[in-house]
């Protein structure tokens, strides 16, 4: 089955709404901002956290970044007229806020260099998998995390937004502020690199 | 090998492997970005504080308003929204320690989220929380406690902005001249709260009109603020009154370590 360029990733992931044509969230937000916001958090927290973890490397930092992202989003939503809320694409919008927040914190932190701790392999695994697969999954995840970390920043960000953030190429281009072709080539190069790194690691 | 993105994505090995990196944040994450509110019985059985609305975050209690008035819920929600830009949802349970704190008037073990307050306001509120139930302290005492003697007026303003009245007992801060002073919900409510806690306002006023603002015990040679529990235990025959702390100290009395009158 041929994939269209603007299709989302085939992996719908654990979050509701990744493949939906009409997102219910904007309507919920307009009807009752606070209740709608809780639905927004529950719907997108896993995607945002998964992306943040690839950017931040340390779980507490990833959590802080996500919390800041949602808080900023709420502040903005409080000031938006209903039309603007209805036009929102929440997933892409939140990912933009997340990336901006991350870039700001990197810029602040570059003035105070510090060592980045290794991510515990446990943090990389979806805990719903069975015990037997856990050990193997942990190992795969740890190796993969290392490979992703080694990617150049643009490629890492693009591939993570696509396969953990479930954004379409058009949305990634918008979030990164580049052309769609560029976004697509970032993702291709990343996948190509990951494949080569993976080949090299095989015994 | 193809380098086309769609071909690479169709090689399900890589895409599936990346999917193993999906992680849920901790279950408590939602509480970091959403505040909760609850209605509980208040410290006084009647009047505006018969019940209270309490808002809280994962850091602690953040906002309190009286619930014993009609339209109280809307007022609470409006006041909250004007003060904080944070979503608020009803909670099924109050935060731990809240009921005990309201009943016993002792909130020092309850956690507070005072992120909306300035550092000065936070200092003032954290000092006020230490005033025991049934006792009062002057604004000047609080100013001294936070290392800002002479800032009594600023202390009064800060207390006027107390986001968590009753739990942080700004009602226990009174004027040096023995009068009750201002209150967020008006002096009559302040008086009701103080009397409900067993403060003998009439005696304090009687002493004040006789220019007695400190009480000493001639056996221990210790002097206190009039509402200090230690002062209230002084037998009438051993009780000495003083106008100023300096006068007490000149008479050879030392300040009580509990109420720290000087």
How would you portray this structure in words?
- The complex is a heterodimer of chains A (203) and B (262).
- Chain A has 203 residues and is mainly alpha-helical.
- Helix content of chain A is 68%, strand content 0%.
- Chain A is built from 9 helices and no strands.
- Chain A has helices at 25-31, 33-56, 59-79, 82-86, 90-109, 131-150, 153-163, 169-176, 180-201.
- In chain A, helix 1 packs across helix 2 (33-56) and helix 2 (33-56) packs across helix 5 (90-109).
- The longest helix of chain A has 24 residues, at 33-56.
- With 262 residues, chain B is an alpha/beta fold.
- Chain B is built from 12 helices and 10 strands.
- In chain B, helix 7 (139-145) crosses helix 8.
- Chain B is elongated.
- The chains are: A mainly alpha (203), B alpha/beta (262).
- Chain A binds chain B through residues 2-3, 9-11, 13-14, 33-35, 37-38, 41-42, 45-47, 49-50, 53-54, 62-63, 66-67, 70-71, 74-75, 78, 123-127, 137, 140-141, 144-145, 148, 159, 163-164, 184-185, 187-188, 191-192, 194-195, 198, and chain B through 1, 3-6, 8-11, 13-26, 29-30, 32-34, 85-89.
Q: Helix count of chain B?
A: 12
Sum up the overall morphology of chain B in one term: elongated
Overall, the morphology of chain A is: globular
Question: Sheet with the most strands of chain B?
Answer: 4 strands, mixed
Poorly predicted runs of 5 or more residues of chain A: 1-17
Give the neighbour order of strands across the main sheet of chain B. Answer: 3-2-1-4
Helix content of chain A: 55-70%
Structural class of chain B: alpha/beta
Spell out the helices and strands of chain A N to C. HHHHHHHHH
The radius of gyration over CA of chain B amounts to 25 Å
Name the pair of protein chains with the most residues at their interface, and give those residue counts.
Answer: A-B, 53 and 33 residues
What fraction of residues of chain B sit in β-strands?
Answer: 15-25%
